[in-house]
Design the sequence.
């Protein structure tokens, strides 16, 4: 079976678009080929900064012949209908149609349409121009003389050449000819822009890949990435250093080069005064270079995510850790050439720019420090928050910070050990750094800079930490603050955001969540659960809405907090399901009013433990049996006694069940009262034996109506007993 | 090792080599782009934020007529002032600007040829085209292209104009902008802009970039950030806006000569003025976030009106 090789060669494609574009090319081409009746064994896409490549293997050389029958009108149909049929079927006269007789419908025309199979080459040359013209680039452009035509070809950057070969694997393939936007397909490409710019003639994929390799083009992005990573780690290791991993940067850099060469440079040691994260971001964002830290045996195999060590997780004193001592003044750059001087000039040039960038960062850092250490301190930044819009309908950051204060005051009683004074101070300062020069330049370091500056002016360490941490947790794997002051501010920030957006009806829908509200809800859930905090969410949400109304008028926003609470329920289910707690068990313990996330979770965990035990499984089976019988009898209108009458209990099993119920229901209810869900569940588990024995030895539907009604009442009590801890009807299995 | 060694120096005095003097760099680019058929123009005689504002780019990028131009443009960025103390940042600097309409198919090669002409060997230096889509909200203009890196330093902007003054470019023009000081620092191998050799003379007659500009950087930094009178500037903005609109509101037929004279360029001058005054106000810190958008919108409206007027002129293709 022959193969198809396609290369679209253009001026430099943005790194972030290459991978998706190559995938889009694969699906567009293979879909078009399949639609045209061809089949293929496999298709692989490749990409570099200058090319999108598709290698389709085992393509059928010709599509199959197809014959189909097209039904027409009755032979006595009006001429108009017959003409329409002829046009539709592509027949020139009614003589070409056949007549078919049907006992019910009478005689009618049919057309036999024979579609001959077509050569794959013909199909390819026919579909390609359309695929290229309609390519889904996020942004595309016109260029050159042709751009005066409204219909001129648009591409991400000027398209320079197209290579399109089709043929058997081993022999020379033939060019599939087509033209799009003035570019004619052929069998040539070019190598590396500088190291091998000449035209190459290609026979088939293996030949193509081999020739490119010789022409300093690594076609496979994964290989470029591995090359960069391995070279980087080796260079670092040789200096006793460690690469600060950055998969996103690695992806991007692999899309900026066709022939990666990793080189090591250094910047001036003095710049290590700047916070490590700022150094990393400066070097990464502006220069696409990697930073290095001292290799530390203690780190071992631990996967570090940034230049900073994570803050310590302890219940004790709040501390902030500066990790600058780990960062070194060495960095790694990825060059696209094997330079004739082994890269000396490239390294020197890059170091110069890194130094200049860091000089700029240092300027911002020092001017911020000058501000916060002045008599005014944070004040000018805080005043300016009144001019920073948070959202057109929700007002300014200044207004938010004012709400934070009341919000923190509301939360403090529920947060064990949160000092009111400090929490309010931290909330007051939390957003100040949005007006610092550093955060203006590097939005990613918001919070962190505020914390650093607060520390510089000797704010309490828990306040500095809270400013730094209050955006956390940013995602499912981010650390959760544990210092009570941090928890207070982090909750205030997220709850305020959620209440505001719910009030203006800007809820996440489907895949759209522009304000990251799902993340905020998850953040609240994790803050509450991981810190064992109990907060009556609904009153807190409602008072949050009132805070908006106090500022923006009583008409502000929708009364939507029950809806927000049920959104919390949904996210909690997702969160707990990931922790291995069954969805139906969470449903069994949630009611629309449940607003204590910690208790919901405790209950669900205890229930899961019960259901996972043998006692629990059998008890559930017993419950189901009881509930089914009751449902059936209730439907029939059978009499069920309101209370169990002791005198009517006949067998030992009945007596035992009755006794167990009396005891267990009380104990379970008491345990629930004390919020000791595990012991409530253990109590309930004790019902298993008597319930089993009851169903084994006792017949419910006996003749005697009184006895039957009494036995049904016993069953009702089983059902009621389970209801003290959960709604067993929602549990599946 | 100085990259200068690769430059072909026949017949030129050493002081005029791009690697030896700032002016030598400019002269070399002039020669190169002149040899590619560009008209070599002089800087526009008004304060602008970038070479793009020169009418030879903004207005000439519009309409169907072919156009190739190259020029140096002093560019003012009041907020970038560092009192002459930052080795790379200036509130006044030079851009070298090339515009080719329609964009030739080998524009990247032409550009790389210009780098070779000033002594940058792409087998010794890592030249990269890194995505950078250009947009000027004040000019109602956008295009796709790259920033060009040389060893990690951005030395040029390379843009295929798609829209200018709110009008589709037809045909598309290719625009190249070189940051001359950075490029000169590179080829002269100095770390501080003020150490650049301006005239290429060594010894007593040597004039550095610092000799020419360090004092003015200090003076303008102080004026831009703290002294410029904001009330006056606000008035200047209003005046420029009003004058621009007044010019464009005139009858197209000049009553004195009886000829059609659309005054696109005088009107555009007022648009440039408004834009620069806005930048000064920004540096003075008196423009709030919401106001910022409003001012940008006002200048954009002027630019669009000027572009529309230009398309009614002969150079605009009528």
Sequence:
């Amino acid at each position: 079976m022959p193969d198809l090789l396609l290369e679209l060669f253009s001026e430099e494609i943005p790194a972030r678009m290459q991978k998706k574009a190559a995938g889009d090319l694969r699906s567009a081409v293979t879909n078009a080929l399949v639609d045209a009746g061809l089949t293929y064994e496999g298709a692989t896409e490749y990409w570099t900064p200058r090319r999108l490549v598709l290698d389709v293997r085992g393509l059928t050389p010709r599509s199959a012949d197809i014959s189909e029958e097209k039904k027409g009108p009755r032979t006595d149909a009006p001429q108009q209908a017959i003409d329409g049929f002829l046009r539709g079927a592509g027949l020139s006269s009614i003589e070409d149609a056949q007549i078919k007789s049907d006992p019910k419908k009478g005689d009618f025309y049919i057309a036999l349409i024979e579609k001959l199979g077509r050569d794959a080459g013909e199909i390819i040359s026919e579909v390609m121009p359309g695929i290229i013209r309609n390519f889904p680039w996020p942004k595309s452009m016109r260029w050159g003389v042709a751009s005066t035509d409204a219909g001129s070809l648009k591409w991400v950057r000027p398209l320079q050449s197209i290579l399109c070969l089709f043929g058997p694997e081993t022999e020379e393939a033939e060019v599939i000819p087509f033209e799009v936007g003035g570019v004619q397909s052929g069998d040539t490409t070019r190598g590396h822009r500088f190291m091998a710019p000449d035209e190459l003639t290609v026979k088939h994929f293996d030949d193509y890949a081999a020739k490119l390799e010789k022409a300093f083009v690594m076609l496979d992005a994964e290989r470029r990435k591995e090359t960069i990573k391995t070279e980087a780690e080796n260079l670092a290791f040789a200096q006793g250093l460690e690469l600060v991993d950055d998969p996103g940067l690695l992806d991007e850099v692999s899309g900026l080069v066709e022939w990666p060469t990793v080189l090591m440079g250094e910047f001036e040691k003095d710049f290590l005064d700047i916070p490590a994260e700022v150094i990393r971001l400066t070097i990464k964002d502006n220069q696409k270079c990697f930073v290095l830290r001292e290799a530390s045996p203690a780190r071992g195999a631990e996967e570090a995510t940034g230049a900073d060590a994570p803050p310590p997780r302890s219940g004790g004193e709040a501390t902030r850790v500066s990790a600058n001592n780990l960062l070194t003044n060495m960095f790694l750059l990825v060059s696209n050439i094997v330079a004739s001087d082994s890269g000396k000039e490239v390294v020197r040039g890059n170091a110069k720019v890194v130094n200049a960038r860091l000089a700029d960062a240092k300027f911002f850092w020092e001017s911020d420090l000058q501000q916060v250490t002045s008599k005014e301190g944070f004040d000018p930044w805080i005043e300016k928050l009144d001019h920073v819009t948070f959202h057109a309908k929700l007002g300014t950051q200044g207004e938010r910070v004012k709400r934070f204060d009341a919000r923190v005051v509301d939360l403090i009683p529920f947060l064990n050990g949160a000092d009111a004074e400090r929490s309010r101070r931290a909330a007051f300062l939390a957003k100040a750094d949005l007006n610092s020069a550093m955060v203006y330049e590097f939005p990613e370091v918001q919070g962190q800079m505020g914390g650093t500056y607060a520390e510089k002016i000797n704010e309490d360490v828990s306040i500095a930490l809270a400013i730094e941490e209050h955006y956390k947790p940013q995602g499912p794997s981010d650390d959760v603050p544990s210092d009570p002051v941090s928890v207070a501010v982090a909750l205030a920030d997220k709850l305020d955001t959620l209440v505001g957006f719910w009030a203006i009806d800007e809820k996440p829908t489907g895949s759209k969540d522009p304000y990251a509200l799902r993340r905020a809800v998850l953040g609240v859930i994790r803050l509450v659960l991981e810190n064992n905090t109990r907060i009556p969410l609904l009153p807190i949400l409602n008072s949050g809405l009132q805070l908006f109304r106090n500022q923006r008028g009583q008409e502000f926003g929708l009364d939507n907090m029950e809806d927000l609470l049920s959104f919390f329920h949904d996210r909690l289910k997702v969160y707990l399901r990931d922790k291995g707690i069954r969805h139906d068990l969470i449903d069994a313990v949630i009611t629309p009013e449940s607003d204590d996330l910690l208790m919901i979770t405790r209950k669900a965990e205890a229930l899961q433990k019960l259901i996972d035990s043998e006692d629990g499984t059998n008890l559930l089976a017993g419950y189901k049996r009881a509930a089914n019988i009751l449902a059936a009898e209730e439907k029939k209108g059978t009499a069920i006694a309101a209370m169990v009458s002791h005198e009517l209990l006949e067998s030992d099993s009945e007596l035992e069940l009755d006794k167990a119920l009396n005891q267990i229901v009380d104990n379970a209810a008491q345990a629930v009262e004390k919020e000791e869900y595990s012991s409530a569940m253990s109590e309930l588990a004790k019902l298993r034996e008597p319930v089993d024995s009851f169903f084994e030895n006792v017949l419910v539907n006996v003749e005697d109506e009184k006895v039957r009604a009494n036995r049904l009442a016993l069953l009702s009590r089983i059902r009621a007993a389970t209801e003290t801890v959960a709604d067993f009807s929602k549990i599946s299995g | 090792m100085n990259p200068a060694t690769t430059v072909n120096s026949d017949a030129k005095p050493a002081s005029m080599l791009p690697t030896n003097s700032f002016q030598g760099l400019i002269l070399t680019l002039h020669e190169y782009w002149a040899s590619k058929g560009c008209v070599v123009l002089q800087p526009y005689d008004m304060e602008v934020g970038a070479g793009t504002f020169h009418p030879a780019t903004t207005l000439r990028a519009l309409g169907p007529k072919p156009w190739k131009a190259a020029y140096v443009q002093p560019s003012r960025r009041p907020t970038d002032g560092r009192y002459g103390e930052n080795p790379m940042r200036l509130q006044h600097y030079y851009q070298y600007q090339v515009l080719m309409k329609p964009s030739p198919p080998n524009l990247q090669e032409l550009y790389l040829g210009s780098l070779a002409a000033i002594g940058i060997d792409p087998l010794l230096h890592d030249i990269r085209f890194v995505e950078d889509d250009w947009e000027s909200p004040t000019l109602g203009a956008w295009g796709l292209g790259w920033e060009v890196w040389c060893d990690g330093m951005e030395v040029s902007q390379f843009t295929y104009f798609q829209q200018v003054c709110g009008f589709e470019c037809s045909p598309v023009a290719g625009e190249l902008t070189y940051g001359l000081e950075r490029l000169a620092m590179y080829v002269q191998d100095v770390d501080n802009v003020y150490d650049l050799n301006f005239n290429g003379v060594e010894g007593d007659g040597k004039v550095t970039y610092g000799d020419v500009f360090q004092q003015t950087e200090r003076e303008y930094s102080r004026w831009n950030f703290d002294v410029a009178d904001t009330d006056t500037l606000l008035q200047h903005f209003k005046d420029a806006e009003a004058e621009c609109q007044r010019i464009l509101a005139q009858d197209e037929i000049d009553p004195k000569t009886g000829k059609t004279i659309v005054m696109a360029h005088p009107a555009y001058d007022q648009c440039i003025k408004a834009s620069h005054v806005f930048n000064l106000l920004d540096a003075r810190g008196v423009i709030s976030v919401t106001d910022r958008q409003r001012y940008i919108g006002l200048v954009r409206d002027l630019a669009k009106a000027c572009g529309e007027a230009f398309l009614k002129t002969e150079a605009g293709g009528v």
